[in-house]
Amino acid sequence: MTRQPPALSLEFEDEFVAGLRAIFEEKIVFNRVLGLQVVSLRPDKVVGRIAMKPELVGHYLHNRVHGGVISAGLDAMGGLAVMAASGARHMEEPPLQRLQRFGKLGTIDLRIDYLRPAVGDHFELQAEVLRLGSRVATTRMEFLGADGKLLACGAGAYIVS
């Protein structure tokens, strides 16, 4: 598969960034429950953070983040990466019009590989779009420990039309 070149020089308007952050962190209730925060939002890569809290751990997991939390976090970040890439593709539209495009975004397929136990006080999640088509986008995601060690990785496909 040929990767599409990222739009590295493109910067989003403050209004678009604030709107996308509000959708992701506040309006998507599950992201709010996870405590998922946007750290960096670029057209070619998004970065998020989850702080460890008791709700994320099962009693039998000995302070390890539950795999469902990892999966949900990576899925959310894949969707955010698609939103950023799509927003960059339609820069001729006003920021609010671009933000309205995301109502139809949905996960088609998700694969997560758990590589190591997720133990720590916080975690970084990264995602990038490998291909943004007119109807389907594919992404690659990573779940990293505070020390930068790769704990899980994933791939997702999202409907964008």
UniProtKB/TrEMBL annotation:
Molecular function per GO: fatty acyl-CoA hydrolase activity
Species of provenance: Ramlibacter monticola
Matches recorded under Pfam families: 4HBT
Thioesterase domain segment(s): 63-151
Keyword Chaperone (UniProt): no
Keyword terms of this UniProt record: Hydrolase
SUPFAM superfamilies to which the protein is assigned, alphabetical: Thioesterase/thiol ester dehydrase-isomerase
Protein name, per record: Thioesterase family protein
